[in-house]
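User: Teach me something about this protein's shape.
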Amino acid sequence: MKATPAHQGLLMQLQKLDTEINQLNFKLKSLPEHEQIKAIHSRLEHSAVELKVVETELEDVSIDLRRSEVDVEAVTARMEKDEKRLSAGLGTPKELEQTQHELATLAKRKAELEDGELEIMMRHDGIKKRVDELKSDEEGLKKLELELNVRIENATTELNALIATAANDRMKLAPQIDKALLDIYEKVREGQGGVGAALLIGNKCDGCHLQINAIELERIKTLADDDVLRCEECRRILVRI
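Assistant: First, the predicted structure itself:
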């Protein structure tokens, strides 16, 4: 097949544009923010499960705490009643003695209840702190997700503009290339990962990066400038420089 060196040069310009478009599309699909958002969603899902468990635990401990407070309040009220009775001297000496004994028992019981109440309060505070941490983390993750979405939107707009520019340049360039050469290029490009033409640099194909054997190189040297070369390994169009 024949094609002027000028047309072969234009083909390499077309390949450069196609490579640029492929790279931009790949970058568009693989923006790191997408993976970051997936990681955020995963963390939010795990956090939501833990938050539900911890909030249920907080409700249970809150009930225990209130129950403990009621018990302490009841004992305190009974002690105040007995103390008033003693202060007023109401009752027989035996009844007053029994009241004093009851006060001592109640004081011991109150101390035990207060110790238990303190323990429950500490548990309550610890769980409440964890609930607050999870909610704060959730808020921070959602805020970060919004920021990442803005970055994705900005990057997408910028990349799509670059793709559109390159695609427009390609549309103008392609009709300038010999149709038969262009048809082969498009067919090879489709089956070779978007690369249909490559430079012959020294004794290597810049498409598959394999060396061309000495016999083939000698044959190439005898060919006219308008002969179209093909790599024996990858079948891409080889353009001499």
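Now, about its shape. DSSP finds five helices and four strands in the chain. The longest strand covers residues 197-201. If you'd like, I can walk through any region in more detail.
User: That's plenty for now, thanks!
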